[in-house]
Amino acid sequence: MTNNKIKCAIIGSGNIGTDLMIKLMRSDILEVTALIGIDPESKGLKKAEENGLVAISNGIEGLKEQPELADIVYEATSAKAHAHNAPILKEMGKKAIDLTPAAVGPFLVPSVNLKEEEIPHLDNVNMVTCGGQATIPMVKAVSDVLDVDYAEIVASISSKSAGPGTRQNIDEFTVTTARALKEVGGAKESKAIITLNPADPPILMRNTIHVKTAGSAEDKKAEIEASLEKMLGNVQDYVPGYRFKADPVIKGDIVTVSVEVEGNGDFLPEYAGNLDIITSAAVKTGEVIAQSMQKEGVLK
After folding, report:
1. 8 included as an active-site residue
2. Which CATH class is domain 130-270?
């Protein structure tokens, strides 16, 4: 089976990149070969070495020196870094899966718009943000029943789960998430807010989604509830810790949904569901891309 796997590498040896590495090591379809960073003393690179992966400490230049390491490259750095790396990866002929809010490529939320038939035509896909992965499915579930005039989301995460990359990307988070709520979720207008909660013990990732529908949501209450439940199951297929925090509230033309995400505890504790949902979504996306590549005969 190993010989049939599609090789992948990760740029970014911080919290997200390291958590992603551990998840990819369990994949039956992807073979993670390398973790790439810029700090040779980082915990991520040391963990990569411990697990027999190639640990590269001079950034994308190291991948350029060993292009055979991967056909798919995950970007887990910052929006600014991916803006620099994206054209290089394209020139190298690599498929890029971007976990930063750079939004160089089209937005992708596996439970909503991951379509295998479109994958061969895409060389760079964007995983939006952790808040986007958690909330866009719920907005889309409502918009599948009624037009959504406005969607507003508040993502609250433990400050302990927000590493330097997350903190550097706060502005990009709000802009990218709001844009994806429209382009993928189906809202006509949108707003996104993120809060870092310093509570101790740390809280799980919690997301509140407010949706204003074009018609009476109460009149379509049963259909909306069924759509939300179905979407919940779709997300849980690859993020088991994703669940409703409370029953959805539907009153007049307003739908309010509260979801929380408990992490798998691969690299960070379970409270870091914000990392878990985006890395899990990235693994799911990479596996579908790999399956498409296998069908095309791209085996290395």
Report:
1. no
2. alpha beta
Binding-site residues for NAD(+): 13-16, 161-169, 274
Identify the burial level of 247 via C-beta atoms within 10 angstroms of its C-beta, where 0-12 means exposed, 13-18 middle and 19 or more buried.
exposed
The catalytic position among 130, 155, 184, 232 is 130
pTM score, whole prediction? 0.94
39, 18 contact by CB (below 8 A): no
Q: Give me the CATH topology for the region 2-127+278-295.
A: Rossmann fold (3.40.50)
CA distance 151 to 257: 11
- Give pLDDT tens digits for 168-211: 889 899 999 999 999 999 999 999 999 999 999 999 999 999 99
Q: How many CB atoms lie within 10 A of CB 9?
A: 25
Q: Which residues are annotated as a binding site?
A: 13-16, 161-169, 274
pLDDT of residue 173: 92
